[in-house]
Amino acid sequence: MTLDFEKEKLIEELKKAKPKKVLVQLTEGIKKNALEIKEWIKALGIEVIFSGETCWGGCDIAIDEARAVGADLIVHFGHAEFMQIDFPVIYIEVKDILNLNPLLEKSLESIKDYKTIGLSYSIQHRHDMENISKFYEEKDKKVILSEKRGTNAYEGHITGCDYQGLKEIQDKVDCFVIIGNQFHSMGATLAVKKPVILVDVYNNDVRTMQGLRDKILKQRVISIEKLREAKNIGIIIGTKHGQKFGSPKILIEKLKDQGKNVIIITMSELTPDKIMNFYSVDAFIELACPRIAIDDFAKYPKPILTMREGMVALGELSWDDILEKGLV
Question: How far apart are CA 300 and CA 24, in angstroms?
Answer without folding.
Answer: 31
